[in-house]
Design a protein that fits this description.
By secondary structure, the protein is mostly helical. The protein has 16 helices and no strands. Helices cover 66% and strands 0% of the residues.
Amino acid sequence: MTPPTPSAAAPLEVTDEDVEKSITSPAPKANESRSPGQLAWRRFKRDRTGVISAFVVIFFFVIALCAPLIAKVYGKNPYDTYGLNTPGLLGDNGFPTGANGGMSGDFWFGIDPQLGRDVFTFLLYAIRNSLLIATGITILVVIIGVVIGVTAGYIGGKTDWFLGRVIDILLAFPSQLFFVAFTPVVIALFVDPEDNTPVWLTVVCLIGLLTVFGWASIARLLRGQVLALREREFIEAAKVTGASPARIIFKELLPNLWTPILIQATLNLPLMVTTEAGLAYLGVGLQDPTPDWGVMIGYAAKFYQDDITFLLFPGVAMVIFVLAFNLLGDSVRDALDPKTKR
């Protein structure tokens, strides 16, 4: 009995649905190469702490930028003394008659003692002024630090030695004491002691002094980075091909320095916020009635034993912002440098 011969394989039936799927479905992707920025962004998105901190920081900056609009919709401003103009808001002792610092539907955060200004709008403008000043200082500090640090590290020689000594002097200088002692001296050069100091002059003086003493740490860090990078093969190859120093700096060095620059910027801004507020609290920065975090805390410190409400709002807001920005700086550092583990 002969075994049955194997039948020919039945032809595959291709339906219209299979054809449609083959046309619409994308071709399988190979392992796509991603840039360092894309990889850092993916790592950052996985960090819940960093994402939440970023939203908090963005919220504060939106509040700062929209402060005039919010105050207009709210219907009050930070300069009017509502407690003095409206009977019944302040008691005979100068404190709000209402509970919790006079909080109500008309005054969401209450009113401050003695003057009766609206705390909510005062805090809005305080956040606005403090963040604008701190952001301006940070931008200038980063720009000057990058220029001097890269110049010292790339040129080397006597230039590096001279700039290195300047950096050492600035880092060793007691900057906080200098701010307290020297700020009135600088202002006195432009304003007679009997005249009121313009707000813009105080702001310019603050930005100038904090910038002068703030760039040294970034410059030292970048100088060390450039000293290590300029001996690498790709820098030597660029020199051999005849690339100009400017091209080497902008095309070869700076792309490898974005990580420390961004990290230092994110860590420097909250430092400037607290420093500026501290100077205002000590009486050498912005002064009342100009809204400022330090002005609010300094004014509230006189009454916190009897009414802590006025101190609570600016204090908690500053703690939240500084903490969120520091956590954001840590997350940015971890995202840009995967070898760093918290």
